[in-house]
Design a protein that fits this description.
Elements (H helix, E strand, L loop, with lengths): L9 E4 L2 E7 L5 H4 L3 E5 L5 H30 L8 H25 L6 H20 L5 H10 L1
Antiparallel strand pairs: 1-2, 2-3
Length: 149
């Protein structure tokens, strides 16, 4: 007897199988759509079912990720960071600086002057320290934080 198992997210359109997943109403606005369509790139039902398992897991993970993000947005802002959170921010910023450094190395200093760049960094550091000592955040540091986060 033929397997009559129903796969609710499996759809056949123009002889090609697709994943067609309804987006839960609580995250439709965040995703900007009410359905997700993804080609399974096959006309063979067995292959489509195998691919559907993998793709439906990815879509389900996407839904959960959006729910977690929405939940974080509803949380009150932190008053203080833990040591672990500070370390995570430090590590993320360090990776960011390494990536910028790698870009500079790959592009080379063509058209740039190393001494002028070093002088600019020293002035920037002095400005940042001046602002910080007065309880202000420099625009540069705010831009850096936004880029890393």
């Amino acid at each position: 007897m033929e397997d009559v198992t129903i796969y609710p997210w499996l759809t056949l359109r123009s002889r090609t199988y697709y994943l067609r997943a309804p987006v839960p109403t609580d995250i439709q606005k965040a995703l900007g759509k009410s359905e997700i369509w993804k080609s399974l790139r096959t006309q063979d039902r067995r292959i489509a079912i195998d691919r559907l398992r993998h793709e439906s897991a990815a879509v389900t993970a996407l839904f959960e990720d959006h729910r977690r993000k929405q939940a974080r947005l509803l949380e009150p802002p932190l008053q203080e960071l833990t040591e672990a959170q500070l370390k995570a921010v430090h590590d993320a910023y360090f990776v960011h600086l390494l990536e910028e450094d790698e870009e500079t190395r790959e592009e080379g200093f063509e058209g740039r002057n190393f001494d002028e760049d070093a002088e600019w960094l020293e002035m920037l550091d002095a400005d940042n320290r001046y602002e910080f000592a007065r309880g202000k955040l420099s625009p540069f540091m705010l831009d850096e934080a936004a880029e890393v986060l």
